[in-house]
Amino acid sequence: MSVLEVRGMGVALGGRPVLREVSLAVAAGEVVGVVGPNGSGKTTLLRAIAGGVPHTGAVTIGGTDAARLAPRDLARVVAQVPQSTEIDFAFSCLEVVLMGRHPHLGRFESEGARDHGLARDAMARTDTAHLAERAVNRVSGGER
What is the number of other CB atoms lying within 10 angstroms of the CB of residue 9? Predict the structure, then answer.
């Protein structure tokens, strides 16, 4: 079973088609790279999957139609960190990873020991633990 499936996705920006009939399936544990020249729609594809860009076609996450997920529920299973982003504050890389825990917390709830453990584990699994205390605006786009 696919954890992510995109069927017949199309995106138009400013009336101009950017993506046409894109389909893909990603299995659990599979690592997928999206490769193409500048302006080919790689970021638009990721933004559409995450619900940030209107699109045609269907996105299924874990067997559920993503269009039927509440924004908070979608944020619990889909996230992206763009390579280039303006961050004016010197958040540590660990603090940025912890921001991904926000959809899992209650209103006005702060991260606890479990959240810190999950964030550190995620950084260890992505071989970025050595960046935990570095300011995110002091690491390269690839490290981000």
Answer: 22
